[in-house]
Amino acid sequence: MIQKKICLLGASGVGKTSLIRQFVESIFSDKYLTTIGVKVDKKSVEINGQEVKLMLWDIEGNDRYHMFQEKYLRGASAYIIVVDQTRSPSLIEGIDIHTLLQQNHDCPTVLAINKSDLTENWHWGEKELNDYKSLFDLSYHTSAKTGDNVETMFSELAERLLQESVQ
Amino acid sequence: MSTLFEDLSLGMDLAVLELVADKPTTFLLKSGNNGWIEDLLPHCSSSEPFEIGDDLPYLEDFLIDAETVWSASAPGRIKSGLWTESLADRRDLNLEAIAIRQNDHQLLVIRNSSEEFAYRQRTLQSARELMIANDKLMEQHEYLHTRLLSILSKPKNAAEALAPLSSAIENAGFAVIILDHQRQPVIENSAVIELFEQYDNSYHKQPRPSEIILKLMRSQLPEYDRIFETSSSWSGELCWINPPHTLKWLKTAIYPVKSEPHGIKNWVIFISDISNIKHLLQRNEQLAMEDMLTQLPNRHAFWQTLEQRISQQRSFFLLYIDINEFRHLNEFYGHEEGDKLLVELGGRLQSALKKDDFIARVGGDEFAIILNDIESEPPCRQVTNRLLNLVEKPFISAQSNSYNVTLSIGAAGYPKDAQSVEELMKFVDLSAYNGRRNRQSTVQFYSHEMKEASRRRIQMEVELRHAILDKQFELHLQPILDLEDRRIIKAEALIRWNHPEHGMISPAEFIPVAEQSELIVALGRWVFEKTCSYSRQLQDNGTPLKISFNLSPVQIRDPELFSFIKSTIDKWQVDASLLELEITEGVLVDDYAKVLQLLNDIKALGITISVDDFGTGYSSLAYLKNLPLDHVKIDRSFVQDIVTDDNDKAIVLAVIAMAHNLNLSVIAEGVETNEQRDFLIDSQCNSAQGYLFSRPVPYEQLRSLL
């Protein structure tokens, strides 16, 4: 069985924990509970008959109370930058982390534009958003609440990682 | 060694493991017999070595860091940071690991950190909820603010202009009030009606939301008069207390919508009820006093501290610091960059202060500082110099552009200048306001003269607004003569203010005030319109004459400028080649690329361009070479002593030579004597204006000179 470490990163309150909970346990809670430190969840997915075990590192949100530490990325096969489409600064924060990591990490990257069940409430135009998306290997509009695109995101990422391992 | 393990685990909920092999994943349990250890490490044993593997990925990863400590020769330790493990029964364990090297032992301590975890979670939960609520609020404000201001600045009446936005205003998650220029409500959305709804059974007429908010501002903001008199914007918090049941905290922002000829067309007010956020803040005493963005003390903390200091009757100086042209920086680089600037600036200012001093962010781009135990101006000036030095270092934007900011600092001393909190605040606010929109950093110490000058300035601003409405301005024309044949070849349009009580007021007095208050845009437009009307009349009378008009840096920034010029020329059917634009060197340093584009566009219409007051500013050959210029005007200060001062002589000769090399013609200003004229003729200066030939005269008089 192949094992892959995937880190979820982004500003606080964007829904990293909720995306993992939705994916691993199919549970969603509207109540926001801030993550402290790191929690690692595991889930196996089957891709083309092959089992891939995903180690999902849920890392405390990046903000003035918690600076992102690059060491968490050690050994990661991919990372997902999660942003909240109701808060512009979360995208800026996400892009900042991505820019920092691009200097030292050459792994597949995903942009998850989360809370797609809520009305989009930021001022980015379509072109700007597409420019940001183009900085990533994959991008999805996800909703941890409805589950929209959550399974797809993790499965397609797993598939990509599997392909890379085979090559 | 057993003592070490006992010490380590004494009274602590932890497990101590010792590395037993070269491979840094094999351990023996040395101490700790809590139930959770077995749940976490089911194979752990004090007699049989066991492995830590990928079933505990976070801990396994930490062992890589741990190895650097264990393999070192010196004693040391490293912590893993908090992490959470879910046990098989779905219980969560909150843990932290510490790798220690001591007395040749390589230890791994795993601590149950549930208490620390719970404490951090409690604190950060409310802090982050607040931060997210604040982000969302700002997002909504900013969106509606930008759209409202752009729609309202179009020349329509507010109600009509707002039709396309009416549903956005109505459904905004916060209160919106739009006032006309006399502060009478034009629009009050449902949210504002609901916000100020009073459950009063009496038959008293309830005040309108706009009345309540203006009353709150008047009573709680020492800046109130200044904001309205000078058409400034403000944002901050107000507290609405309406006994017996109401106490609401209102995050409020007020913005002027400027237009000609009134100066002010509307006021837009946004109000959000942040009582819930305040309630959350109360759960964390420190946050209640803290500005969310800069983490400096907030306005509330500042007022408390200021009151406290006054009650202690110790001398201090109060500084009020305003970032010059912050709005333009914000518009140019974006709000995120503006926020970054505030954070960095706050940090820089703080680093220049002593421990005893106090700094707070008291408004959008305003900081206040209390300098303790300073009684006189000189030591206070030392501090302000330190602050300004720190700000001189450029700021770097996310796109790696470097830019500079300048500050206006107002300073007043207690008890020397004022004895009450409100008085002090009013003084420093006024002092800082006096320096605002300067390109340079300024420090203004409070003085009676300054107060008087500032009162006069604000009064003049108010009168200027009336003057625009009452058409108290006149446009005079000063002939410009060809020095070779003494013919009038051009005239410069110069504005004059004929005040009903004070008579003619010099432009030197009112133009700077107009520039600072942005009334210059309205004035400039009036001048251009009038210039076109005179040009039309001269053409109609068969005596066409070129007229030059002036634009200030503030007007150049007006995004509607070019379309205004073009439509006015069309309206008056003027031959554009009979118009000349005069710009000062200051315009060129503002935003070179933008100015170049504008000048090219203006030139394409057929208007010629001259650089005014040449020699007094920052001009360089590089500027002149690349701009579409036709003439250079030598400043009167050089012409004045041209006959007696060798330096001025040399400068004028150099300017003429340089301009001719660049194919520019030269106009000398302020020519008052025959000697000056003769020198200029000898030096091949092309044309001149000044009292020797004619003062600026009304249109009819100019016609008689032609």
Report on the architecture of this protein.
The complex is a heterodimer of chains A (167) and B (706). Chain A is α/β, with parallel strands linked by helices and 167 residues long. Chain A has one domain: Rossmann fold (3-Layer(aba) Sandwich). Helix content of chain A is 30%, strand content 27%. Chain A has helices at residues 16-25, 88-102, 126-133, 150-166; strands at 2-9, 38-47, 50-59, 78-84, 109-114, 138-141. Chain A has a six-stranded mixed sheet, with helices on both faces. In chain A, helix 2 (88-102) links the parallel strand 4 (78-84) and strand 5 (109-114). The two termini of chain A are 16 Å apart. With 706 residues, chain B is an alpha+beta fold. Chain B has four domains: 2-112, 2-Layer Sandwich (Beta-Lactamase), CATH 3.30.450; 123-278, PAS domain (Beta-Lactamase); 290-458, Alpha-Beta Plaits (2-Layer Sandwich), CATH 3.30.70.270; 471-705, TIM Barrel, CATH 3.20.20. Helix content of chain B is 45%, strand content 25%. Chain B contains 28 helices and 28 strands. In chain B, the strands form five sheets. In chain B, strands 20-21-23-24-25-26-27-28 form an eight-stranded mixed beta barrel, surrounded by four helices. In chain B, strands 1, 2, 3, 4, 5, 6 and 7 form a seven-stranded antiparallel sheet that branches. A five-stranded antiparallel sheet of chain B has the order 9-8-12-11-10, with helices on both faces. Chain B starts with a helix and ends with a helix. The mean pLDDT of chain B is 84. Chain A binds chain B through residues 3, 5, 12-13, 32-34, 36-41, 55, 57, 61, 63-66, 69, 71, 74-75, 86-90, 92, 121-123, and chain B through 54, 57-58, 61, 64-65, 81-86, 94, 117, 120-121, 124-125, 127-129, 131-132, 135-136, 139-140, 142-143, 146, 295, 336.
CATH topology of the largest domain in chain B: TIM Barrel
Q: Helix segment count of chain A?
A: 4
The geometry of chain A reads as globular
Which strand order spans the largest sheet of chain B, edge to edge or round the barrel?
20-21-23-24-25-26-27-28
Would you tell me the structural class of the helices and strands of chain B?
A: alpha+beta
Measured distance between first and last alpha carbons of chain A: 16 Å
The proportion of residues in beta strands of chain B is 15-25%
The amount of helix of chain B comes to: 40-55%
State the CATH class of the largest domain in chain B: Alpha Beta
CATH C-level of chain A:
Alpha Beta
Oligomer: heterodimer
Low-confidence stretches of chain A: none
What is the CATH H-level superfamily of the largest domain in chain B?
A: EAL domain
Q: From the coordinates shown, what is the CATH architecture of the largest domain in chain B?
A: Alpha-Beta Barrel
Q: Sheet bearing the most strands of chain B, described?
A: 8 strands, mixed, barrel
What low-confidence regions of chain B span 5 or more consecutive residues with pLDDT below 50? Answer: none
**Name of the CATH homologous superfamily of chain A:** P-loop containing nucleotide triphosphate hydrolases
Which range does the strand content of chain A fall in? 25-35%
Give the rounded overall mean pLDDT of chain A. 91
